[in-house]
Design brief:
By secondary structure, the protein is an alpha/beta fold. It is built from 42 helices and 27 strands. It holds the Pfam family PDDEXK_1.
Length: 987
Amino acid sequence: MEAFLESVAKKLYEEHGNKISRLHIVLPSKRACVYFKHYLGEMMNEGQVLIAPVIVSMEGFARILAHLQIPDSITLLFDLYKTFLKHHEEITLDKFAPLGSAILREFNMIDNNLTEEKAVEMFEYLEDAKAIDRWAENLDKDHDEIKQKHQPLTEFLSFWKSLRETYVEFRANLLERKIGYGGLAFRTAFNRLEEAVKEEGIENVIFAGFSQTSTIEKELILKLVDMGIAKTYFDCDAYYLDQPHHEAGLFLQDFKKHQPQLEDFKQEHIGKHKMDVEIIQVSNIPTQAKVVGDLLQKELDGLISENRLEEFTHKLNHTAILLPDESLLQPLLHSLPDELEGTKEKDIAAKNTNITMGFAFHQTPLYELVESIFNLQENLKREEGKVAKAYFRDVVRIVRHPYFQRNVRDKEIAQGILKQIQQEKHIFLEFETLLEWSDQSPLYRAVFFDWEEKHPAAIRQLKRMTEGLAKVFKNEARTPEEAGADLEGENAFENELLLKLFGTLNRLDEVLPPENIQLKTFRIFLLEALYNITMPFTGFPIAPIQIMGMLESRSLDFDHVIVLSCNEGKLPVKKSVESIIPFDLKSLFGLPTFKDNDKSFAYTFYRLMHRAKKMTLIYTDSSNELTGGGEKSRFLLQIEKELAPRFRDMISVKNSSLAMPLPQIKNELVEIKKDEALIDRIKERLTEKPISPSSIQKYLKNPLQFLEDVVIKLEDDDEIEEELDFRTFGTLLHGGLELLLKPFVGKTMNAEQWTAFKKGEIELALDRTIRETKDLNYFSLESGKNYLLFQIAQKLTADFFTQQSKEFSKVKIVALEDFYHSEILITPDLKIKLAGQADRVDLVWKHDGSMALRVVDYKTGNFTKKDLESKIGIQEVLDDPKKNKIIQLLAYKYLLLKNLNSSKLSKVLPPHVDVSKLKIESGFYFFRKLNDGFIQYKLEGEPDTTTEREAFFKYTEEFFRTIVLDMISEDKNISEEAPVIELVNEY
């Protein structure tokens, strides 16, 4: 089937012959111009010489008529700021920066769609003080309340007044210098159209392939038509044009009101030729690129088997791959097939693919590195009189960047720095330390340097960084310019990136004021400028496979159209909220809204069906929130529910699903057989130092973990913690309580003393704990989660003291954080030492007059009350890991009783207390549920410690003996599963 542009070229050549050179042919895009030139060339006979007509995009045509140059965005932004400053003297560049680009976009949109008079009217509309009244009248609230709550609207209206003045003056200044932004170029072209036509000697203008246009583009086309020197060629189909409310035809229906002859161009393509549509659902976004690679592989393999590869390489419009989401370009390029069956030639797909869209600078590693360096500078820790320190995560992110690990030496430096940070647990580091670790590497000296929040230093150091990277990419190069001179080498792409960055830095250096601006302002200007840069790809412009953005496909036709990201929010693109002009005001003055964007995408999508033989539409399943996809595009649903049923003989729709399952990780049970050597190693560990209740708990939960952590002592690299987690938070709380209660050891405390602790005392104790505890002294408490947790620790400590004042009439602190140990005979030749550190031992006088000696443990984690208080047998403690906490309490009670007669305890206990008859209690205070008080355990069959003390000792020792015998049993393998241990005797 003949392509649209091909048919236009043929008609124009037939009508004008050699006089075609007098035409100005205006097309929707530069890509369309490339194809049109090719089609026109094919019209000529061999050896024929023809002066080509002017073939130009609409933007290019506007520049010809307007006689304006379009400067870079940096120039426009600073010119805008100078004008804005005249009306807002208090506005600094720092305040203007976040707003500048948005204002420039709005001015561009206004000039594309409104006359100067209409634009001023719109601004004046917002200046009207009655605007507040109009908005208030539409709300069910008191009028005065609305005015009071919307006081900022006064400033809002003042801003719009100055914006009108800025708009008028800014345009005038640009026009005086014969420069402008895109919208101003169109408006100027329209305003001087008759004059420009004469100046340029324009006799005949052809507009072909237009549908979605801005207001000014449409007015320009219609005015030239009215002048009798322009003709339009439309590519439209009866399917959507004859449906008054079909999105794809709305733009053309509006055109038809002014150009009834548009009806003559209406054809019946859709549903009148065979077209196969395959709709493929994939499980996640990256898989889409993989699917396209597989499709191309099969297609090319088929061409080779049919001996049609040569024909394919000369095919003009074979396959188009359209990317509504341009971030998929990189994974798509990596998915192109490199080897094909039946041919030795490599990279056939790549050699026959052209990429029209360019590669966005903001998706490159260099942009990512620049962003990381800004983060590093903005997060520097500054203290008066001290050098600035870098946050370790920012350092790690930079050091791990691929540009810092390009060769063996660089990798060694990077790995060494990462190891030092890990081992020394640095949260903040001085730059000088980093430079010493890097052996004063020039690249590190350029990056790890304090800009002191000054933009000239930032520019200087970023330039030095580009110079350093240039040397990394090409050792003999000294500057980015020299590196960029060799753009055909192995690092050609990286060198071109460096050139772009270096050039942008130079441009900013020229236009930025000499006085310092805030770092965040400089960041906005630099990253905005880099964000708008696209890196062009080199290739054959009319290759058989074309990768392009959605709108680049305007006026082009392909046999096979592949569209990725066919999800709502991508196709069509989601509603934009970036405009500073309210939606209702846009609608009132006819400015484009997201609805116009939807119409544009609809026409572009449906026009692709005019001549396509096959369409492959890929979307991401939205049922899984982790996939990142949205709902299936409504365009796909329209094909399935409306188009295909209507033309069932011509359009076939096939739905398929491709799930790329995650690799299945088999949780195979790891088992280690105990040989004599391993048993001896376990025995050695049990005898060489005491074993704690927590180690025994670990064995009962996971023997393999016990073997690694307790016996063999394999150590993982400790992750650097910058935030207090449950473990370190517990350490903080324990340490603070110890410092606060230490002065009361050996003393009896009443309710008044418990509540006498002041907030300042608690804060000082916790702060001292942070500073003096090795695992805590690198935490910063100034902000964020750590600050909140520090406040919570203060509150919990105060609440705990309040609870203690009410629970008992008196409490005597016997010991704090003391170690207790006792030996247990396991076998005639094996004796272990059970040991534990009790948070607190105290003697309490209860409100009923009874006394008890308690061993107390503080817990900051979660717990289930029934796991402790439900009366269970000791066998269940072995069988159920959830009940393992009882082991700690049982061991503490045993150890306290074994050490009752020690000199340390006997000195503190009151002399009149008979320790042999004293009730012994062991339990927890859970800080998440302080109101539950002291939680003890209950074990069925446990001998009473007051009347059956020796029986209790035997009971407890038999329990631990059984566990240790299981540890050294030859019949029991070591695995990750909890061991099955049967007690010989249950008491």
